[in-house]
Amino acid sequence: MGAAITDSGRTTQTPTPPRARPAVRFDAAVRAAVGQGLLSESRPVAGFVDTDGVRSSVTELREAFGHSPGVLHTFAAKASSLIPVLRLLAECGMGCEVASPGELRLAVEAGFAPGTIVLDSPAKTREEIRLALALGVAVNADSIDELRRIDALRNRDSASVLGLRVNPQVGGGAIGPMSTATDTSKFGVALRDPGAREEVVRAFEARPWLTRLHAHVGSQGCPLELIAAGVAQTYELAEEINERLGTRQVTSLDIGGGLPVNFSDDTVHPTYTAYVDALTAAAPALFSGRYTLVTEFGRSLLAKNGFIGARVEYTKDAGDRRIALTHAGAQTATRTVFMPDSWPLRVGAFTEDGSPKQGPELAQDIAGPCCFAGDVVAHGRKLPELAEGDFVVLYDTGAYYFSTPWAYNSLPRPAVYGFRSTAPEGEVKFATVREAQTMDAIAAESGLAHADALTGLG
Ligand SMILES: Cc1ncc(COP(=O)(O)O)c(C=O)c1O
Predict the structure, then answer these.
(1) For 20-34, how does the pLDDT look when each residue is reduced to its tens digit (9 = 90+)?
(2) Span from the CA of 320 to the centroid of ligand 1 (angstroms)
(3) How far is CA 2 from its chain centroid?
């Protein structure tokens, strides 16, 4: 397709072709994980992160925004809240977006410089704000009330960049719970509500230190045009504030993350380049350098760079259905189990030595170990017939899956390993990112130290 020059001087190629990130590239890692005992009868489930894949995703992000001066790309820690993963991203030159005191702690431990950390969350306590300001971490207030708290807590010497999150109310996407820019979303100042825009302008007027506008219009299920429309509204608001205040007080725009991920096949789409094209179309001056930009991508950086491997413990027939009972269920694929239509996952079948399983396909339910009937990660999926001792692989689970498990049934948090293939030998090297949770740790977390607390109450 032809090239076009945009108002910002950027050359766009439309449409951006989808890129492939083939799942078969993980075959060697699955075989090696089984060969090295990381997946076995006694270690029946684990998460895996492809570190070269993560590095190339960061490179693609940088290249897509490369024409824009002054962009800080932060990684949304919620997408993979694991210190070694965060440290890898810090080493790649990224900053970190955090949304809780726990995530802030992880970001600091991972080694992000405070000036590259951004704190967002809709329910920051005074203590949390105080800590962020003391560290010099950027803070996006979620409401005017939160700005009032910052008024009281802010020390003139704080190095923190301070911003206000707005909800441009441009509408929702295909997944209601993932849509942050609906009319009634809990996030940010609802910009189209009566009087809200004026209140925002006055909030900036009263606070010369307030220099950033933030919007995160996403996430999964939102079309690029919707996300870009929200960013464009935010850009226009910044222009209006600066014009009305007669000074360029707003100097940076945090445009959030939210790029959706394709879970149905190997192609990476939409790409960061397609997103930049959509942003350029919606807000032609966004990349002119008028504002420095912050991004907060999570899922699009990690999802296709990770997988879950799980052993098949049993198979059975019920009614006319074949069921494979595996160790990957709601504890590690929570969203998929509870909203299977919104979060479908691709499943691969592997033999007990970790080789791709061949043979005629059979429709099978891939169930997990949790003790409730709905604990099924794939329904009626056609795969070579699974047997006890085989392994299943859940693809595209590098973000928001094994990194953020659910403690239901006191199932242990699965181990996580990073890996690299060393060319040309094709040997796969693993490193432990997180140990599987031990039974002692589960007992401790479940109140072992207070075992007599209730009976002792009398
Ligand atoms: C404020 C904020 N920024 C960034 C993200 C990351 O979004 P995604 O992983 O879709 O890129 C989220 C996700 O919930 C978020 O709430």
Answers:
(1) 888 888 999 999 999
(2) 41
(3) 33
Name residues contacting ligand 1 (CB within 6 A).
76, 78-79, 97, 120, 216, 218-219, 256-259, 296-300
User: Averaged over 141-146, what is the pLDDT?
Assistant: 98
| CA 75 to ligand 1 center in whole angstroms | 9
Residues ≥6 apart with Cβ < 8 Å to 266: 20, 21, 22, 23
At CA 26, angle to CA 22 and CA 31, rounded to 5? Answer: 150
pLDDT over 80 at 426, yes or no: no
Q: What residues contact 290, with CB distance under 8 A and at least 6 apart?
A: none
Q: What is the mean pLDDT of residues 344-359?
A: 98
Q: Which two tokens stand for residue 434?
A: 């997180």
Q: Which atom of ligand 1 is nearest to the CA of 79?
A: 9
- Nearest atom, ligand 1, residue 260 CA: 10
Looking at the DSSP bridge assignments, the partners of residue 119 are: 98, 139
Angle 101-110/83-91 helices, nearest 10 degrees?
50
Question: 321 CA distance to ligand 1 centroid (A)?
Answer: 38
Q: Which two tokens stand for residue 54?
A: 């993560």
251 conformational bin, left if phi > 0, alpha if psi -120 to 50, beta if neither: alpha
Three-state DSSP at 144 gives helix
**10 band by pLDDT with thresholds 50, 70 and 90:** very low
What's the confidence (pLDDT) of residue 307?
98
DSSP-assigned states of every residue in 416-454: EEEEEEETTTTEEEEEEEEPPPPHHHHHHHTTGGGTTTT
> 376 CA distance to ligand 1 centroid (A)?
26
Residue type, 95: G
What one-character DSSP code corresponds to residue 356?
B
Which residues, other chains included, contact 14 with Cβ-Cβ below 8 Å and sequence gap of 6+? 1, 2, 4, 277
Rounded to an integer, what distance in angstroms lies between the CA atom of residue 89 and that of residue 203? 35
- Among 90-99, 175-184, 328-337, the range scoring the smallest mean pLDDT is 175-184
User: What's the 347 CA to ligand 1 centre distance in angstroms?
Assistant: 25
Say how many C-beta atoms besides its own lie within 10 A of residue 423's C-beta. Answer: 8
Q: Is the pTM of this model over 0.90?
A: yes
The confidence score (pLDDT) of residue 98 equals 98
Say what the pLDDT of residue 13 is.
Answer: 47
The minimum-distance atom of ligand 1 relative to the CA of 220 is 10
